[in-house]
Amino acid sequence: MKLAVRWMSLCLLLLSGLAGNFSPALAATELEVDYSQRVPLRIAYGQLRWGVAAAKGRVLGPNGKPIWAEYGADGNVVSEIGEAHGDPLENALVMSAYAYRTYVEAFKAVQAQYGQQSQVLSRSEYETITFKGPNDVILSKPALAQQTNSVVVRDPLTVYGAMSLVLHESPLDLNRLGNVSESDQSVLLAAQGWVVKVSAYNIGFRTAFYTPKGSTEHEEYNNYVWGKDTLNNFYLEEDQLWGPVMGLPITVFGNPEATSSDEEGRFAAFRTLGCDIPTFIEAKIRYSIFNPKGKFPGQYVYIDDWPADCFWVPECMSPPPIYGGGGIAGTFGYQSWLQECAGTVGGLYLMPPLKGIDHFSKSKIQLDVAFVTGSAMLRNPSGVIVNGEQTVYAYAPPLALPYSSGPHRVQDTMADFSNQGLLQTISAADFDNTDIYIFRTSNDQLIMSREGLAEKERTPMCGNCVDQNQGRINYHMIIRGPGSDRNSITRKLPDLRFENFQAAVNVNPALRGYKADHLRIGEQIKVVLVNRATGYIGTGIG
């Protein structure tokens, strides 16, 4: 099974703060309010709200490079390893401890078989040496795989005929092997393949929605209280966003004119409904899917409520008290004011700017979501397997040889070294019996799995393939992070709430809940497809 995989992670913030908006959750005693700016609005429409669209991204160090760190099972940083700047952390890669031990065992098996008739060379040594076989014949050198750092070659004097010079390739530095135990999870390798760090935890880059000003000195930041999984307390002019999103389509219900974010992720939203009428802001994240015949990309919709920001003020009492601003006393004061001024003429009042907090967001759209899309085909060495009414396997009986009389036993059939029992056609029911597994490559942890294909993923029923007879799968799965629960859609539909959604899509129980080592932006994943009916397996990394 041939497999292609692609995954994207996008976390979106809609940050809105308007001079003239007021949050009743804040106590009036904590704020300096300029009452002189209260003006009655006789026209109940037209209001502007500034915002910023940002993705959850990698936290950068002083040199502008991402920071390697160890993560615990709760998703918190156990310790920082260092910034990926200069040797050995620049261009380093992370590998599961199990994969590292497997590479070492494969190397030792070659050593045990060939012993003194083999030699370990670095990639640069292999590419610069000219190998001479018997009679000083120059031997051809097979090209190495891109990820190869070390190679095991035969003794050139033992290479004859079609024998290959290369016995083994490895991404490790086989001359500097590290000690990796069964209890370790991740290994950080330098670009040359030698071990930089072995960890009993998961190794990855630090990520966050934002970090506050002076964050590296803040205990709150080091413990990931601020900015890791939420945009709460984000301050527009001072805090550092790590992934501003440009060109994000944003609309306001009731306003036919859409807007979009600029290169810094900032935008302005305008509503035409009365400011005393609640509405909502909608952001649409579009992503590519493997669908050769598809007309539209995938789409994820995020809704954020925009509550009423003004109210009717009778002329008998102007300016009105801050409703709710002073806690319980302020709330009762506002109710008393309404009773005393009932029936009088007045106008709509917009709350004034609050000095010192007018850059804080009242409205946040946080899209903490990853999309895994890919294409896979059932195929044999001879080509792609086709769909059929039934599942059929190819078999050719051996060719019988002529009978030979005589005292000696002779061969009854001709020797046949061709493949037998390969799949020729597959039925729709057997094709549907394909499971999908997603792993993180840093520690081989299962992220999520799904048994069977969705109706729209199998062809030709969904029309997603080039040839209607091809056994092709165009799959797509969504992985949500804890920040996605701020979406108004998920808050209003219990089945879509984070923990319920995780259970429904079969996320690994170890990764369920808000306090877990969730998949981070930029992580490498491995997708494995298994057709249970036939045993065909495909693997892709992206």
Distance between the termini: 16 Å
Please report the number of helical segments. 7
> Whole-number radius of gyration?
32 Å
Strands in their spatial order, largest beta sheet: 19-18-21-22
| Proportion of strand residues | 25-35%
Quaternary state of the chains:
single chain
Outline: globular
Mean pLDDT comes to: 77
Task: Kindly list the characteristics that best describe this protein.
4-stranded antiparallel beta sheet, about 550 residues, disordered N terminus, 7 helices
Question: Would you give an account of this structure?
Answer:
Helix content is 11%, strand content 32%. It has a four-stranded antiparallel sheet with strand order 19-18-21-22, with no helix packed on it. The chain is built from seven helices and 36 strands.
Q: Gist?
A:
This protein is mainly beta and 542 residues long. The chain is 11% helix and 32% strand. The two termini are 16 Å apart.
